[in-house]
Structure formats: C-alpha cells, structure tokens
Automatic annotation (TrEMBL):
Cofactor(s), by name: NAD(+)
Name of the molecule in the record: dTDP-glucose 4,6-dehydratase
Domain of life: Bacteria
Ranges of residues in domain NAD(P)-binding: 4-323
Enzyme superclass (EC): lyase
GO molecular function: dTDP-glucose 4,6-dehydratase activity
Name of a matching Pfam family: GDP_Man_Dehyd
C-alpha cells in the first residue's frame, strides 16, 4: 500500500511512519509543514529507507496537496497534521481554526477530487483516515466512558476545532461517499514526544532541577496510550476498518495527573538519582489551573477490540519506564529542540 501521512514529523505521525517502515511493506510519503512541532530528527531511524519520502507542505495549500496526492497516488491518506497543544489554543486560537478546520476541509476536497478519478476497484480500496481526539466528547465525571456514540461536547478551542474537523470528515462520507475512517484516541505518550507536553516536560524539568508544575490540585484524570500501541491501532484501522466508521482508541490506563508526575519522579529516582540523594518529588509544585480544564477523559475501546482485534500491549508503568529511559538515552534529540526554539519554562498541558 501507499500511505500519505500528513503531520508525519509530529509525535504520533513519526511513530506511525517508523512503525510502517519497520514492520510493514507499505510505502510512505510524509507531508508536513514543519511548524514548531515538526521534528525531522524523529524520522532519522528510517529516513534512508527507499520506501520513505518527505515533502514540506501546508495542508491549507490546495495546489501543494493536490500535487502531492496526484504524484504519489496513495491508497490511504492518514491525516494527522494539526495544531495539537491545548494551552496554545487558549492563547491563540486562530491557527487552530485555520489548520485543524480549514486544513482538514482542504485535505477532504483534494482527496475527493483524486478519489473520483480512480477506477472502481481503487475507489473501493481507498481510505481517508482522520486522526482525532477523545477531547471532542467533553469532560466526564468520576464514572462512565466515552463510546463512539457519545455526543460531542468540546470545551477548548483545540477540541472544538477537532470536533469541527470530525464533522467535516463524516459529512464528506455521507454526502459524497468518500471512504473515510475516524479514530478518537486518548492522551499519547512515549519516545519523541515534544518537550512542551506533560510527560516529557516533567522528565526534562526534573533532570534540570526545576520546579515541576502540576495544574490545580492534580486530580484531573486522563487515559494514557503508549504511542507505539497507537501506531499499531492506526494501521489496523486503515487496513481493516469499515468505511464511514469511527473507532475509539484507548490505553486502559486512567491516571490522575499528580500520579503521572509521581510515577515519573519515582522512575527517575531509580534510573538517574538526584546528586543530593533527595527524591525528585520534592520538586513538585501546584500552579493555577488551566482555564476550562476538563475533569476526566476515559475511553471505551471495546469496538476496535471486538471488530478489529486491536488492544494496547503496554502497561502504564512499563510505558513510563521505557519513556523515561528513552529521554535519558536520547538527550541530544530533545536538547536540540530546547536549544533551537523552545523554553520549558512554559507550562505543559494535561497531556
Ligand atoms: P504534533 O503537534 O506533535 O504534530 C503535528 C504535526 O503536524 C507537526 O509535525 C506539524 O509540523 C504538522 N503540521 C501542523 N500544521 C500543519 C499544516 N498546516 N500543514 C502540514 N503539516 C502541519 O501532534 P501529535 O501529538 O502528533 O498529534 C497528531 C494528531 O493526533 C493530531 O491531529 C492530534 O489532534 C491528534 N491527537 C493527538 C493526541 C496526543 O496525545 N498527542 C491525542 C489525540 C489526538
């Protein structure tokens, strides 16, 4: 298969591409604008492979997208390009509207134009796979889970923009017959995670001896999905999922934010003890809560398990141990990002 991945220089997109090049025969074209979040060094492990290619381009640029699609002739478009950081969406929502909504509209239009020109067999095999978030469903109380039929109730500019893009994708299936797939997943974590997100931010600040910021009282609950489990899920969905369907993808790992931070501290205590012998948890400090901070997200992933046979392999404790080890062993990857353009003094989000 030929897979066009948008946002392939991002956290999840690069994990998907590494997985596809290492563990499948698929060819991959990575189409990415390289915003602040696009990191090409995340692809170094596979970028010499002849089945991988890269084009720098903007999903909002109709000509660039059309050219990439018509020249590459994909069987699948896996659409991950997005603005993804909730805190940034609160500070400056305009970019989120443009990329996540207008960009997805443009991807759908160009995909539709291409799909209409395919012969019948290729039309039937084609998939437009839109990667989205569980945040579109809003916030849960202490009980219950998001299913594929939960009503949409987005509450941040980020989740509202993702909800809008999900609606567009469904509409292009219902109205024009484009064979679409949507996955809504929980918080990802793992290697190559950009330093502004909660887990890498805590690891990096802990190692620097800086205070570890936790929003509010740290009681917000998120489900955590190891990014390599997610990459396997995405492949399973675009290879075997039924057109027009939505699948929730979760990690079976609900944790309060404060417990995530404590687990990281305890792992670092074992793997890389502080010079003064004190626990990293001494660095934890509570900061003013994020505006509109959703209380709890939790995913019911029984549909993808029952229909496509996918389930997460990684436990949260093993996944965190692997992630902490990766950040200790790959300092040059994240140090280069910090040196070039990013200050971890900025707060992380709840993911
Ligand atoms: P990321 O921020 O790490 O990467 C986004 C990538 O998209 C970057 O490489 C960036 O350069 C690229 N990009 C941004 N705007 C672009 C544009 N206009 N044209 C082309 N490329 C552009 O994001 P991520 O964490 O890898 O998330 C990928 C997708 O998964 C997003 O759609 C996000 O909404 C969704 N998602 C992420 C999570 C998570 O926990 N990270 C959870 C649920 C859903």
């Amino acid at each position: 298969m030929r897979i066009l991945v948008t946002g392939g220089a991002g956290f999840i997109g690069s994990a998907l591409i590494r997985h596809l090049i290492r563990d499948s025969d698929h060819e991959v074209l990575n189409f990415d604008k390289l915003t602040y979040a696009g990191v090409l060094t995340s692809l170094e492990p596979i970028d010499a492979d002849p089945r991988y290619s890269f084009i720098q381009g903007d999903i909002c640029d109709a000509d660039a997208v059309r050219t990439a699609i018509t020249e590459f002739r994909p069987d699948v478009i896996a659409h991950l390009a997005a603005e993804s950081h909730v805190d940034r969406s609160i500070d400056g929502p305009g970019e989120f509207i443009q990329t996540n909504i207008v960009g997805t509209f443009n991807m759908l239009q160009q995909a539709l134009g291409y799909w209409r020109e395919l012969d019948e067999a290729d039309q039937a095999a084609f998939r437009f796979h839109h990667i989205s978030t569980d945040e579109v469903f809003g916030s849960l109380g202490d009980e219950g889970y998001f299913t594929e039929t939960t009503s949409y109730d987005p509450r941040s500019p980020y989740s509202a923009s993702k909800a809008a893009s999900d609606h567009l994708v469904r509409a292009w299936h219902e109205t024009y017959g484009l064979p679409t797939l949507i996955t809504n997943c929980s918080n990802n974590y793992g290697p190559y995670h950009f330093p502004e997100k909660l887990i890498p931010l805590i690891i990096i600040r802990a190692l620097a001896g800086d205070p570890l910021p936790v929003y509010g009282d740290g009681s917000n609950v998120r489900d955590w999905l190891y990014v390599e489990d997610h990459a396997r899920a995405l492949r399973r969905v675009f290879e075997q999922g039924a057109p027009g369907e939505t699948y929730n993808v979760g990690g079976n790992s609900e944790r309060r934010n404060i417990d995530v931070v404590r687990t990281i501290c305890e792992t670092l205590d074992r793997e890389s003890p502080r010079a003064d012998g004190k626990p990293y948890a001494d660095q934890i400090g509570f900061v003013t809560d994020r505006l509109g901070h959703d209380h709890r997200y939790a995913i019911d992933a029984s549909k993808i398990r029952a229909e496509l046979g996918w389930e997460p392999i990684e436990t949260f404790e093993d996944g965190i141990a692997k992630t902490v080890r990766w950040y200790l062993d790959n300092r040059s990857w994240w140090q280069a990002i910090l040196d070039q353009r990013y200050d971890t003094g900025r707060l992380g989000k709840g993911k």
